[in-house]
Amino acid sequence: MLSDNREALVRVKSFSPDKIRELVSCAYLYGKPGTLGSLLNRPYRAVLGALYNADTDGELSRLGEMNPHGIVAGLSAAAALCGAGESVLVLPSGNGFTQLRSAAEKAGITVADEDFIDCRAHADDLLLHWAALAAVADLIIGEPQRIITSVNSRLTEVMPGEPVGSVMAPGDVKAVRIGASYYTPSVMSEPARAELFAAGGVIKTYGSDCCIVQAAYEQIMRLRKRCCGKCLMCREGLFQFGEILREITKASSNPAEPALAKEIGEALAPAAHCSVGEAAAECMLTVLENFSSELDSHIKKKVCPAAQCAAFSAVYIDPMKCCGCGDCIAVCPEDCIEGKPGYISMIDDVVCTKCGKCAEVCPEGAVVRTQSRIPRLPDRLTKAGRFRR
Ligand code: SF4
Ligand code: SF4
Ligand code: SF4
Fold first, then answer.
1. Is residue 327 in contact with ligand 2, taking CB distance under 6 Å?
2. What would the pLDDT profile of 26-42 be if each residue is shown by its tens digit?
3. Which listed ligand is nearest to 279 at the C-alpha?
4. Which residue owns the Cα nearest ligand 3 atom 3?
5. What is the pLDDT of residues 298-314, one digit of tens each?
6. pTM for the model
7. From the alpha carbon of 337, which atom of ligand 3 is closest?
8. Are residues 237 and 131 in the same domain?
9. Distance between CA atoms of 90 and 101, rounded to whole angstroms?
């Protein structure tokens, strides 16, 4: 799938629709259950080859550079199978894809430049992901089906049935995001299947220093940027998810919010008209299901287990380490560090926003972020090296 499959394009032109059906009916779909054959029980106006709206990572778009003829072959085969009057290749605007565009035009495929697929306008069309088309092309030349994915920005393939973790490097993994869904590391021992790689198919891993609530908030914000706003449930649901997650990270949530988020997620998935709403619901529901203890810790214990949420932490200067260089004073955007050359700096905790800029510049590693009790600190300016606990 990751190299240009010109052979498939040659073969698809010479095969009859029956032969194509025999070869590719079992092709995996991305973001949908079932196989290509299961979708052919109704007529379609056109077949569309596109990236999904919810693909916020954009990494699978590289397939368009790596395997342009495979994508075109897959699209031609799908169009021949369902007898659609038109086949359309949708390219994200402004990204080139010169070879893909030219291969499609040579094959008589209409090329459309669109960043967002209006799924209502295309209700009578068959929408297939580029990755599904490349998988179809593999079947045409007798290659086994593989599932394409991107692991921490590296495009790769996994054989169906192989453990998901077989394409991942070992390391400190606290959570695995596949598409927009968040899983515990146990997903790495699950057999790979196409539905797991819905809406983008991208795998990202998060280590123990990552706050999953913050990660989910950022994912919801990326999806909000892709939301067209035409479905009330998606528009409002994304807004509510963002607010709920933000409040949890700011220590201002209440214990009823996870239940509200679950209710919204369950209503949003079936009401959404495209993958954006579905992915948002998946994101929220998988975080609620798989990371409930991390949410509880934020909401009930007021502790961020990864010590990343500023609202739950305090920042102080370790008087035993500070040399009084003053670098932190120069960068503090709140002007809330008191000190002078050679004296231990002190942070005004009431004004400090815990932005961490002082820690970034401190040459002594004296700035400490903690969720534990703060030790005794100087109560007046004290010469560096003179403080005694
Ligand atoms: S689900 Fe969201 S992004 Fe998709 S059509 Fe509806 S409002 Fe637009
Ligand atoms: S964390 Fe930010 S606001 Fe607080 S003292 Fe450091 S630089 Fe200033
Ligand atoms: S940058 Fe570090 S060592 Fe320098 S004054 Fe600030 S806390 Fe002390």
1. no
2. 988 876 778 888 888 88
3. 1
4. 322
5. 999 989 999 889 888 88
6. 0.83
7. 6
8. no
9. 9
